[in-house]
Amino acid sequence: MPAVVLIGAQWGDEGKGKATDLLGSRVDYVVKFNGGNNAGHTVVIGDEKYALHLLPSGILSPGVVPVIANGVVVDIDVLFEELDALVARGVDVSRLLVSGSAHVIAGYHRTVDKVTERFLGKRRIGTTGRGIGPAYADKINRVGIRMWDLFDEKILAEKVEGALDQKNHLLVKVYNRRAITVDETVEELLTHAERLKPMVTDTSLVLNRALDDDKVVLFEGGQATMLDVDHGTYPFVTSSNATAGGAVTGAGIGPTRVSGVIGVVKAYTTRVGEGPFPTELFDQWGEYLQKTGGEFGVTTGRARRCGWYDSVITRYATRINGITDLVLTKLDVLTGIEKIPVCVAYEVDGVRYDEMPTDQTAFHHAKPVYEELDGWWEDISGARTLDDLPVNAQRYVKALEEMSGTRISTIGVGPQRDATIQVHDLIG
Asked: What residues have CB less than 8 Å from 400, skipping those under 6 apart?
């Protein structure tokens, strides 16, 4: 049975939570392998809406084992806030596993994140201020704190002292903030240690044994391809590998284990935060997509920037991730638009780019080259097969499939779990 990676193929917020939830009944494990609580998933089940930030979406599927793997940075306070909120709504969270090698977000990470972003001014990245970047920086600088460290107070104090040594100089002398003490940080981190301990384990071993036993494991990426620290629109990116390769290092499995990669795309494009966005709309259509699509961040509440579908970045995402299937979401949002532009290439200083320019300056100045497709007026929220869609909606899907370089296997026509058209099986 397969190990399947599911990633965002744009700038995030594509509907990965719904895609994961759709597969829930056929999956044994759902693994979060990167990021932290800096991005969220919204899952609608019947009349109930769930907003998840740190937890894998699979926690809502009965029988599924949700896993927070080693590539994630964990804010323990947020973890337990989410768990308690789900328990209050009758969700069983007892199966959750957390990697002992996952790094911990401490209070000083959040402080550094916020003051640094303010200090950057107009050069700001647009972070969420939740300490994700500084926690990853400490991981790379080898002064990070891991889950295992919370169960040895002496080791924890030593590591916190080492991490704060340089940061306090920065906070006091550069940012004019007070120094953070070792004791207050250790006390904060130990608050949930005993409750956390039964969840913490070697998740890499668990997952490899599950695959040996022919279990279905879904690796759920946070953020998206265009926010990947290596392959995204650097420096306006996240601090982890949000592409399919990140599942291998972020969960501790071998690359030969992966049998398929599912990419999730909206029928248009959105972006949160700073950075270039070639198809961004500043007119009534941008406002229309934002309002009709409910484009506001699950985690931050920030309004998302909106634009037309960009087939250039989808082709790029297909290549970078080895995408085998696309899940197209929010097709229903486009209903009622007479002519729908789709970006098929870029123009930079008179030169046409059919593929993604990796030069930062070129991408920043890229102008979209559009083709217009005929729209439709019919309500498509009840469609459950491709033939149920209006002819022009079918043509739109087919055109996107041809432009994007891989097949569209699932189409979302509404926010509900069952508002979905299944064209091809996502798990072969």
From this structure: 267, 309, 311, 314, 328, 342, 408
Q: Return the active site residues.
A: 13, 41, 139
Confidence of residue 296 (pLDDT cuts 50, 70, 90): confident
Burial (Cβ within 10 Å: 0-12, 13-18, ≥19) of residue 142: exposed
Contacts of 27 (CB under 8 A, 6+ apart): 58, 61, 64, 216, 217, 218, 427
Domains of the chain by start residue, with CATH: 3-93+202-422 (3.90.170.10), 103-197 (1.10.300.10)
Nearest 10 degrees: Cα torsion 118, 119, 121, 126:
-50
Tell me if 115 is assigned to a ligand binding site.
no
Report the greatest alpha carbon distance in the chain. Answer: 67
| Euclidean distance between CA atoms 354 and 204, whole angstroms | 40
Average pLDDT taken over every residue of the chain: 92
Asked, as a colleague might, if the bond just before 235 is cis with ω within 30 of 0, I would say yes
Return the DSSP state at 172.
Answer: I
Mind listing the pLDDT tens digit for each residue in 180-238?
999 999 999 999 899 999 999 999 999 999 999 999 999 999 899 999 999 999 989 98
Query: 252 among the known binding-site residues?
Result: no
Task: Decide: helix, strand or coil at residue 315.
Answer: helix
pLDDT at 41: 66
Cross-strand partners of 346: 353, 368
Tell whether 142 is in a known binding site: yes
